[in-house]
Amino acid sequence: MFMEPTSTSNKRVFSGMQPSGVATIGNYLGAIRNWVAQQDQYDNLFCIVDLHAMGTLTDPDEMRENIHSLAATMFAAGLNPEIAPLFVQSDVPQHAELAWTLSNVTQFGELSRMTQFKDKSAGKDDAAINSAIFFYPVLMAADIILYDTDLVPVGDDQRQHVELTRDIATRFNTRYGDTFVIPKADIKEVGARIMSLQEPTKKMSKSDANANAYIALSDDPDVIKRKIKRAVTDSDARVSASPEKPAVTNLMQIYGILADLSLDQVEEHFSGKGYGPFKAELTDLLIESLAPIQAKLAEYKANPEEVARLLEIGRTRAAILAEAKMADVNRKTGVGGKLHR
Ligand code: TYM
Q1: What is the mean pLDDT of each run of 10 residues along the chain (341 residues)?
Q2: Is there a domain that residue 201 lies in?
Q3: Active-site residue, selected from the candidate residues 11, 120, 188, 301
Q4: Position 310 in a domain
Q5: Which atom of ligand 1 is nearest to the CA of 24?
Q6: Which residues of 211-241 are buried (b: 16+ CB within 10 A; e: fewer)?
Q7: Ligand 1 binding pocket, CB closer than 6 Å
Q8: 294 and 310 share a domain?
Q9: Whole-model pTM above 0.90?
């Protein structure tokens, strides 16, 4: 049974993650860790957005495996389903339904300007661009506003999508009357942009073809050691942060978040030491920080029924809210055959 949140604020938090592969420390430091850290302050809902991942995940077995594995990872990372229900997007059909409705208040030009769409479609033939990657932000807007969301804790790469969500919600409200809460992105100053370990001007991504570019939450100590060893650095040997040193700055940021130190404190800690000792300490810190998550992940993975049970609790909670909101939306737009009052 779902317990009422013990939150001190009744602000609704909603966020989502694609099950498109292993979760990385980018996902963890930019999103999951913040969800967990503030879960007892808000009325939360978290979602595994499987419909968003259909374009990249075309094997049904892999889709099923990834959904459950990501759910297990989130619970292992500390998400407490009693105060932060987690559910799977396609289990609540109102997400797709509302996305269609919202497409009627979304302009072609707005979607064309989304940087993620531009990046993903750049240099590709029209025939090779799936329309779902164009429509994607409309479904994301539906995810968010279906639940009267106030805050959307995400990494920096999702900022533009949340801005668009605000515009879409405002336009609907203007046309049909107040219906949706206008959400705000909650993007932290640190951790919102963890970069690739191989190309530090690119964000760390779980879909990177080069596995050395990211650290997965499930990477074992040997793999972490090897990846940090191979991580690119900058030309001088000082552990200091600056825009001219994106590689070292990124590694320092990861160290700082995990050790709870500011970049200045990290610099101070390693002053007079070179990259060797820095990488060695960073490796140990990562191994130590991920070990408890990995131990719990193994427990959840050994108990798939428990993961499915927890997802069902989340679905029940989300469905109540989604059904009520969608009924209100349909009444306002006038669709459907019922005689509404
Ligand atoms: P996704 O699945 O790519 O990423 C999930 C979350 O992880 C953050 N993130 C990062 N943060 C810091 N550094 C990185 N290198 C990094 N990589 C990923 C993302 O910003 C995100 O917060 N479109 C979304 C999923 C989505 C969603 C939503 C999010 C669908 N509907 C509704 C919020 C609300 C996406 O593809 O995230």
Answers
A1: 54 96 93 97 98 95 97 97 97 98 98 94 91 97 98 97 98 98 96 96 91 96 98 92 96 97 96 95 98 97 97 98 98 88 56
A2: no
A3: 120
A4: yes
A5: 17
A6: ebbbbbbbbeeeebbebbeebbbbeeebbbb
A7: 14-18, 26-27, 30-31, 49, 52, 140, 143-144, 152, 154-155, 157-158, 192-194, 203-204
A8: no
A9: yes
